[in-house]
Each structure stands twice: as structure tokens, then as C-alpha cells.
Model the fold of this input.
Amino acid sequence: MESLNIFIRSIFIDNMVFAFFFGMCSYIAVSKSVKTAMGLGIAVTFVMVMTVPINYLLNEYVLSPGALGWIDPAYGSGGASEIDLSFLSFIVFIAVIASFVQLVEMVVEKFAPALYNQLGIFLPLIAVNCAILGGSLFMQQKVDGGELTSLWQTIVYGLGSGLGWWLAIVMMAAIREKTTYSHIPAALKGPGIAFIITGLMGIGFMIFSGIQF
Done:
């Protein structure tokens, strides 16, 4: 039940786009076509599912204060010292994310060249997509707060966060395809109307914050 709570909350309540407005660069730029948005959303979800649990393990067993320690032989167990590498979290998290983005880029280029050409520069830019980095940093925060207590829960959280971003960009792409046939003032065409729609969708998603689990 707790895993279901984390999954639903990460999609609808703590949605990366509508709650925190993370990953807006590629969200606005790639949401002109449902097909392209679908491809990027799946890629982001895959990277999120893989990197959040790996960064959890690194955080728990390498970066956290006391995760690494040494014992001074001269003092026995009384000489145990804690090593705090938490200041390296940003660098380590981004390195893991960049590695998986490179893997995704190679796979997409090999098996879906048309999608690769459509996504263009925004596929490698997943490495600096703040939604993915935000997922790992929020994971770290939730672990410290006791909301995530196991590797399985971090996998569920990564999957939910990725699907939340995928849902947001696909919904936006579907709406923007429809606005092609609408009479929109010239000053609001393109990113202007996209930001307005995003704001309205964000207000709509606020209704989920009242759900009690």
C-alpha cells in the first residue's frame, strides 16, 4: 500500500512539471507533436527509473555521512572516523544520469533513427534535464525524511516521477496539436500559449493535493 501511495503521489500530486515546473525547456520545445513527445517521455521515464535507484544506493553506501569509515589501528574501534561525501552528490548524480542518457541516445539512434532526428539536440539534453536530477535530489530528501525507506520504494518513486513527466508532455502535445486549428492571437502563438496552458493544467492538477491516502 505504501508503494502505491508513493507511485500515485509522484505522478499526480508531486508532478515534476505541474507541481515543480521542472524540465520545462524540453517540455515546451518537444511538445509540438504527440509522437515526438511520446518518444522523449519514454526516454525520460527510462532514465529516471534507472538513475534514481542507482543514486539511492550510491547515496546510502558511499555519499552519506558514515557510509564510509575507517578505523585507526592505534586506537581500535574507538578510532573509528566517519567520512562525509555528501558534498559530491550533484557531481555523482549527474555522472550517473549522463551515462544512462548516452546509452539511451545510442539505442534510439540505432533502432529509431526517425525519432532520433525529430528529437535532435533535446535527446542528449536529457542529461541536464532538471526533472531527472530533481528526481534524485528529491529522493535524497525523502530518504532523509523517512518517506522512502527501501530500494524498491525508490524504483517506484523513479517510475512514478518519470510517468508524471511523460503524462504532462503528452497531454501538452495533444492540446497543442488541437490549437493548430484555433484562432490564437499572434503574440501568444508558440511558447506563449504553451505556458498559459501549462499554468491552467497545473491549477487543475492541484485538485489531487487534497487526496488523502
